[in-house]
Amino acid sequence: MTKKEQLLIITYYMIPYCPTFGNCQRMFFLADTLSKKFDVTIIHFKETEFNLLGQNMSYKSLVFDIKNKFINRFLYRRKSYYLPNSDINQQVIESNFNRFFKNIIKKIYCFFLLEIHNSLSLKAKVWINYIKPDILSFIKKNNIENVIISGPPFALFDAVDFIKKKNRDINVILDYRDPWSMYFNESSFIIKAREKKYLSLSNNIIVFSQEFADDLMSNFKINPTKITLIRNGYSLKNWNKISNKPDNPQITTLNISYVGSIKIALDGHSNPFPLFEAIKDLSDFSDFSLNLIGLSNEDLSLQDQIKKQYDQKINFYGKLSAQESLQKMSVSDVLLIIHDAPDDNSSRYIYPGKYYDYLKSGKFILFIGNGNSLLKRDIEKYNLGLCCFNDKNEIKKALVNVLDLKNSGKLNEFKHDFLDVDIFSREFQNNKIFNILI
C-alpha cells in the first residue's frame, strides 16, 4: 500500500478540547475529506477536555499547551459567577485576562490585536509563537509540503510568517472561518497591515462566502486565482443517518426549534428576549413549543425563571451531538435563526449557525435579525420562510403568520426544490481543496 503524503492543519480549537462542535467543525470535516488522500495531522491547543461530541476522528491530533505556569495562570484560569440583570440572573464567565484589560488598556490592546473574540487573541498569539519550534520541527521531520492555517483566532496567521522564513517552497493556505479586519466597521491600520502581510505571504486563501471573497480581493488587491470559495455546508454523511419521518397533519402543535449555539443574554447577536416577550404577549399563541438547542449557559434556575416569567412551553437543551441536533431539526415545523448584529459586518458576509443544515432539512426557516443580511436575501429570494427584525412587535406579526400557515396546511409549501441544496454539502464543497494542494 502506497504511503500517503503528510499534510498539516493548524487551528486553535479541536475536539476533544473544544466546548462546542461548532467551533471546530469546519476543520474537522475538511480533515476528514483530506484524509482520503493525505495523512493529516492537526496541531491545536490543549485546554479543558470535553469529549468527541459524537464524532470519529480520521486524522492525527497533536496538542500543545503552554508549560509556563505563570502564563497559564494569567491567561487561561477561569472562574464563573452571576450578575443580576433585572428579573433574570445571567451567568458570566470571566478570566483573569478579561478582568485585567479594561477601558483604556483594552482600547490600546484592540488597536494591536483586534479580533472577534478579543479575550482569545493574545492567548492565541502567545500560544502560536510558544509552539513555533514544534511546528517547524514537525514540518521538517515529516517533509510537509502543504500547511493549512485556520482562523479565527487570526493570531495563528503569524505562523505563515515564520514558516515561509524557514522554507518558502511550502504551500501555505490561509482559511478564513470569519472576516478579520473587515468584520468591524473600523479597524486600526496595524491590524490591516498585519492581515495584508499574511495574505501576501500565503500561496492560497480559502473563504466561506462569495461576498467576503469579493471585498477581500478589492480591499487587499488580491489576484482572484489565489482565492478558493469553500462554504461551510452540511454533512451529507451525518444527514444520511437521520430517519426522515413524514409530517403528520393530525399534529396541530407548532414545533419551533433554534439549533446551534445560543446564550441567554441581552447582549450578543442572538438575544432571545424579544422573542420571549412576543410569545408572552400572544395569548392565543398557545398550541406551540419553542426549543432552544445548544444552550451555552446551562443554569437550571435561569431556565426556570424564564419559563415562569414568559412561558412554560419554552424548552431548553444543552450541547447535543451532531446526530441529536439533526434529529431535532427533522421533527421541527419551523427552524429559527436569531442573528442581530447592527454594530459589525457579520451579517454582510456570514451565513449564521446551522443555515446549511436548515436548508438540507427542507423545513420552514424563520429568521430574526438584520435587514441587510445575506440570510434575509436568500430566504426572500428562494422563498425559504419569513424574516423579521429582532423586535417584539415584528416577531409577533411573524409568529402569527407562521401559525396561520400551519393551520391552513401551507407551511410545507415552502420547499427548497428550486435551490440546488446538494452543492452545499461539505463533501461537495471540501473536495475543492484538492485543486490548491501540491
Summary of the model, kept short:
The chain has 438 residues and is α/β, with parallel strands linked by helices. 37% of the residues lie in helices and 21% in strands.
What features would you describe in this structure?
The protein is of the alpha/beta class and 438 residues long. The chain has helices at residues 25-34, 69-76, 96-100, 103-113, 118-130, 132-141, 158-166, 189-201, 210-220, 236-239, 273-281, 300-309, 322-330, 346-349, 355-361, 374-381, 392-407, 426-430; strands at 5-10, 38-45, 60-64, 78-85, 88-95, 146-151, 171-176, 204-207, 227-229, 254-262, 288-295, 314-317, 334-339, 364-369, 385-388. It has a seven-stranded parallel beta sheet with strand order 3-2-1-6-7-8-9, with helices on both faces. Strands 12-11-10-13-14-15 form a six-stranded parallel beta sheet, sandwiched between helices. Helix 11 packs across helix 17 (392-407). It is globular and about 70 Å long. The two termini are 21 Å apart.
Query: What proportion of the residues is helical, as a percent range?
Result: 25-40%
Rg (CA only): 22 Å
User: Total helix count?
Assistant: 18
- Which sequence of strands runs across the widest sheet? 3-2-1-6-7-8-9
Largest sheet: 7 strands, parallel
Computed structural class: alpha/beta
Question: How much of the sequence is in beta strands?
Answer: 15-25%
Mean pLDDT: 83
N- and C-termini, Cα separation? 21 Å
Count of DSSP strands: 15
Low-confidence stretches: 78-95
Instruction: Sum up the overall morphology in one term.
Output: globular
